[in-house]
């Protein structure tokens, strides 16, 4: 596979199989609203949503965080040919701003800047790098409100979730600011008396960072934090759908005293940017979060220059509810695992297996709880679910639902676009789901919860493992013996027991099988950005 072919799929990177749909500029929000709504009350609501965006942009501009240029070598620049593309608010389709449509030349310059900066950044003491990362963390937290608003504006998730993402994303910078001081080597007992043997850990070099739209801050900091802590420099390619959060985070890195060229951001022409990253011998590692299909192609493209690769790819997470579980705990945990970010996360519960003895009871309690979830613009009070990222995402959900209902699944709740229109979708619960349906075989990436019955523990494990994915899994049981048996048997990189929200900066994140390579977060996350060097000192004396 050529690097160009591998790079061309990065246009869809930006998480899972959802691609960006073509949008027309909105000349009049009200005209669009009337085309989408029949209800006058809905029209008023959408107008209210639309009025929120300009005030958010104004606040962000006054804080200096509303950047709309790329960052190369510490300078904010436009595309060399002046081309731009639009960034939209998924809640109303309106254009937020235009950003540079960058390509090969800009990416090559960003790589050169990162390569030059590596020479000095990698030579700083660990304490110096630690202090600058700590300052970056403090600035992220100080601007939590503005960053949260920016995430909601361009990604659509509820503001409360967006603020939570800022805290979560900043935690990686804080954690790795400390881990920077704990990159240790080894002393090896010599095999000969006149030799001394030891192992150094040294930074990989320039890292290409390719991130998705569903967590536009946290997926960057989870990669960039350990890279910078180890002494690497980075070229970030954020998702085309959500570049503004990446630019704001990069601005704060400069304010924190991280030198020019250490953090670079390019966005735009995904095939051209991707091809430049893959082809460059100066880029020694690629770290990517997105679909398994794209990850495979990046891995193949990286082979040309034998780059190291870290991949966090698609999931098909099972959530297993045993009949000895506390149903209230299981309902709460399953909803958290399923509906966070409107179901648009790689660790979302994609299949909810419920033991036959409590299937009806769980389905009833679960659907009642789901029914209380409020759908709306992320800036709205009490909103639990925002819009799906674009029209392609909605069409994918509809395709999966049609396949399921055609094969016998029953819609217990939801099952269609929300009356708000746009890309809002009703939270959906399906029963009588079978293992051969599309939504059991592939990642849904939407607010759809399929409930599948099972009889025995062995059957549940077999069903859960019957997939090429292996990222996250969840089990609910009051038996400590069962929790241990099932956890060991599940072929997944992360397992939550009686808990639906399990990600944390102090624990390793990553999958097995076709869900990826490597780990992010925790002390193990440092190793992804370090090379081992063995040194043998001879003629050291001895008996």
TrEMBL record:
GO terms for biological process: gamma-aminobutyric acid catabolic process. Residues 76-535 form the Aldehyde dehydrogenase domain. It is found in: Mitochondrion matrix. One of its GO terms (cellular component) is mitochondrial matrix. One of its GO terms (molecular function) is succinate-semialdehyde dehydrogenase (NAD+) activity. It is an enzyme of class 1 (oxidoreductase). It holds the Pfam family Aldedh. The keyword Transmembrane does not apply. Belongs to the aldehyde dehydrogenase family. This is Succinate-semialdehyde dehydrogenase. It comes from Cucurbita moschata. The lineage of its organism: Eukaryota, Viridiplantae, Streptophyta, Embryophyta, Tracheophyta. The gene is LOC111448470.
